[in-house]
């Protein structure tokens, strides 16, 4: 599912965030955001899962102006192999050290 809560370009240079659950497809994200006059920095192929899109970089229609989908992720809530729920966020744009575990 897709809910209110990665970073999205909006009108007037504003940025919005959404929360995307596992199993959501780019088509789900596009449909939900389209109802609000917004678009995601995500894959241009609607059948791809959002998480898979991000893991693959996420090149889409808005990438030239707003970067790849993976560059716009603000954090993740994951479940580890031993069942622990972890919240993680990065230390800044791009790859490299500086990420933190919030748990």
Automatic annotation (TrEMBL):
SUPFAM superfamilies for this protein? FAD-binding/transporter-associated domain-like (SSF56176)
Q: Which PROSITE patterns match?
A: FAD_PCMH
Q: What are the protein's GO molecular function terms?
A: FAD binding; oxidoreductase activity
Pfam families, sorted? FAD_binding_4
Q: Boundaries of each FAD-binding PCMH-type domain copy? A: 1-103
**What are the entry keywords?**
FAD, Flavoprotein, Oxidoreductase
Record-linked InterPro entries: FAD-bd_PCMH, FAD-bd_PCMH-like_sf, FAD-bd_PCMH_sub2, FAD-linked_Oxidoreductase, Oxid_FAD_bind_N
Its required cofactor(s), as named, are: FAD
Q: Does the keyword Isomerase apply?
A: no
What protein is this chain from? FAD-binding PCMH-type domain-containing protein
Originating species: Odontella aurita
Q: What is the lineage of its organism?
A: Eukaryota, Sar, Stramenopiles, Ochrophyta, Bacillariophyta
């Amino acid at each position: 599912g897709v809910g209110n809560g990665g970073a999205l370009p909006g009108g007037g240079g504003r940025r919005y965030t959404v929360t995307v659950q596992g199993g959501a497809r780019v088509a789900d994200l596009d449909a939900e955001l389209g109802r609000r006059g917004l678009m995601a920095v995500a894959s241009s192929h609607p059948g791809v899962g959002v998480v898979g899109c991000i893991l693959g970089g996420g090149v889409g229609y808005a990438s030239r102006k707003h970067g790849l989908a993976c560059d716009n992720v603000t954090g993740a809530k994951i479940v580890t192999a031993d069942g622990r729920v972890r919240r993680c966020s990065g230390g800044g744009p791009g790859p490299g050290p500086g990420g933190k575990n919030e748990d």
